[in-house]
Design brief:
Chains A, B: Keywords: DNA-binding, Transcription, Transcription regulation. Two copies of one chain form a homodimer. Chain A has nine helices and nine strands. By secondary structure, chain A is of the alpha+beta class. Chains A and B meet through strand 6, strand 7 and strand 9 of A and strand 6, strand 7 and strand 9 of B. The structure holds a DNA duplex (30 and 30 nucleotides).
DNA sequence: TCATTAAATTGGTATAGACAACTATACTTT
DNA sequence: AAAGTATAGTTGTCTATACCAATTTAATGA
């Protein structure tokens, strides 16, 4: 388990050992670990060295320490999922609703100034422009316009837009989505939105703009959405 | 700089000192720090205690260590800051504006149903209720109501609310903020908001609710804010 | 039996020292 | 001039010890 003659640091060996015990469920979430003093005596190493191993795993979130009680295997954080990047489709499923789309238009157009800027393209480079109404349980929730670099998704067809665009990009094209910069602001519906979202004049909407990038930093898409304020509330989990 | 008699751990005091030196550019990115032994001798503390402070900052990404060379101030990752949890104060500074507050009320009140639920308290447990107008360059940006468990911040006074509440909680109380669940929605201003934000009737506002937790999971605060839609856009970086 | 007190256990902080591994520099040898 | 060598300074690892603070457990007393 621990080899003092190894060039590998002792704390690192212990760290790896504990990590694998957690991995293969020898140590289960909620379990109490042997005390630091016990490890030290058992392995004939200093308590401070044990602490160094455990501290690293605590920082990673695999273990938790409680003064006077002991060190425990951390419970898995399901919460983590919420903090990530979710599509409208996934989002609605989580909320227990049935997502659907109505395609308004599907065109290959030259990128105008703002779109070109967000996708790091030269102006007038061809991009797909997809306008959709997003429905949840058949109720209009949002009006969405997606701009996506044509050279990244060459085989894009109208049929694909009927389901989840993200699923297609990740699973069929094998592109890895990295991060997104998203902005949110409030506004009053304009006429176009009002017609599609079926709301009163003067009703508030939540405007969301999202700029999505691949893992390598290439801009993938630029999305502008208008959500009905009376039906949609955006929630996110922010970690330090 | 370091007070050995303070109940605050020495490594924590040094950590805070270094953090603030980096904050106010006394230590600039790329700078070489004095060696660990030098700090130990200078402050008359153990080298291991110095290491504990530095290790924490390395884990946070503020410092980097190179064996045989020394410890350096890390290059700033601006993006990182945006993705994390930021206070209004920090947020406005990043945007190059001057943040300020107008205190409307500061009371110790019994927690009502929703507040108690969010703070995991029994109903009618005393909580601080702080109402403030948030200003940026002297322009009203938001109306904010903070509810915070009274037993967590016993010494809270009106004076503290004049500056940054987060700074006080982290640096003076030594509480570690973990994560926050934040929701955003759009609405039309009500009368109270209209009076304080100085906007037209029927103007849109961005309603933000935030539930902040400590690292150990204890609920710290519940905040309701109404931001002027014409002046404020919320931006966040979302990582997979 | 129940509540109180005391002791034991646990993680948290801190010290002092030692040696290893690595880097940069100055100096010596080839 | 180039290569090798010594040296001082840096972080990395590890030990042994000590005391503190929070919690649990055992002993005690009414």
């Amino acid at each position: 388990m621990i080899d003092k003659q190894s060039p590998m640091p002792i704390y690192f060996q212990l760290e790896r050992s504990l990590r694998s015990q957690i991995e293969n469920n020898t140590l289960k979430p909620g379990d109490l670990l042997p005390s630091e003093r016990e490890y030290a005596e058992q392995l004939d190493i200093s308590r401070m060295t044990v602490r160094q191993a455990i501290t690293n795993l605590v920082n990673e979130g695999l273990l938790t320490r409680q003064k006077g009680r002991g060190t425990f295997v951390a419970e898995q954080k399901l919460e983590q999922k919420l903090s990530g990047l979710t599509s409208f489709t996934e989002d609605m499923k989580v909320r227990g609703m049935n997502p659907a789309n109505t395609l308004l238009s599907f065109e290959l157009v030259p990128a105008e100034t703002k779109v070109a800027e967000r996708l790091h393209l030269k102006q007038h480079t061809p991009v797909y422009e997809i306008k959709r109404i997003r429905l949840a349980d058949d109720v209009p929730m949002a009006l969405e316009t997606v701009y996506i670099s044509a050279n990244l998704v060459k085989g894009l067809t109208e049929a694909i837009t009927a389901s989840s665009l993200y699923r297609y990009i990740e699973e069929d094209l094998g592109l890895q989505i990295g991060h997104a910069v998203q902005s949110m602001e409030a506004a009053i519906v304009n006429e176009q939105e009002r017609a599609h979202l079926l709301v009163q004049k003067g009703a508030p909407v939540l405007l969301i703009e999202r700029n999505t990038f691949l893992k390598d930093g290439t801009p993938l898409e630029y999305v502008k959405s208008s959500y009905r304020a009376d039906r949609y509330k955006f929630t996110i989990d922010i970690n330090r």
